[in-house]
């Protein structure tokens, strides 16, 4: 995986799992049930366009970070380009994909789309046929559709199928075992002590990053990393220190803009959006830094697609 993992000598596993599938199949219910009271984080932040950490499960056998796929939800109904784009970003850089289907009703076009996507993936795919409690069973229809698409695409992907009821909890323990069995060995991605405010930091960074990208687009494609250093939460105002990292001195000027106009615009727009999200005023301190090797230092961010 990453350099950091080579030193790991323990026996635990750690990985990022993307939960995908069309709306209403039971993804939220499933995550809630899978994690139960063991949930370290359930993010209540407003969804942004990027992947969002839904929950982190830490057990003795390892740690699993579940990513939600908000972009895909938004793209429902607009099949084609939008869905493909969202789907692509949803599964980028993850260690496993959990595709949730509603096994109690017949396959829909979006399910077909997800099959086509996972056909091309190199990471393990686990397919959970949910709502097994309903009495109607379309498992064969889904499997037939999968075989058809797999043959058409000449794919070698072999997903693991699991029949579950997220509502009643049937098949949940087995599904969790399967997931743990398909993520790599390694130390936890997130140390325990930073679990609680991690999603919030990522979310704030995400908002700031989005503003920069809105204005800069192709000028700084991969060189910009946004990292929230600290959040000081006072009742009336949150003050947030944000590092804006570029790789070269020449990029510093681009990020700051003429007479500081660009960075001021980013700050104001981000503060406005964060106010709408959290219902509290924000003061963002944006510190532009040149960090040649931020990519190495911020490997978690990168892996999650935030850098
Ligand atoms: N009968 C039955 N209903 C379920 C099951 N799992 C989820 N549901 C119901 O299906 C509906 C949708 O569940 P959600 O968990 O919100 O689905 P989702 O995929 O997260 O939906 P989006 O957030 O819109 O993508 C809810 O009414 C759930 O109670 C299940 O195993 N059996």
Automatic annotation (TrEMBL):
Residues 130-133 are annotated as: G4. GO terms for biological process: ribosomal small subunit assembly. GO terms for molecular function: GTP binding; GTPase activity; ribosomal small subunit binding; small ribosomal subunit rRNA binding. It is a peripheral membrane protein. The keyword Zinc-finger does not apply. It comes from the Bacteria. InterPro entries: G_ERA_dom, GTP-bd, GTPase_Era-like, KH_dom-like_a/b, KH_dom_type_2, KH_sf_prok-type, P-loop_NTPase, Small_GTP-bd. GTP binds at residues 21-28, 68-72, 130-133. It is found in: Cytoplasm; Cell membrane. PANTHER family: GTPASE ERA, GTPASE ERA, MITOCHONDRIAL. Belongs to the TRAFAC class TrmE-Era-EngA-EngB-Septin-like GTPase superfamily. Era GTPase family. Monomer. This is GTPase Era.
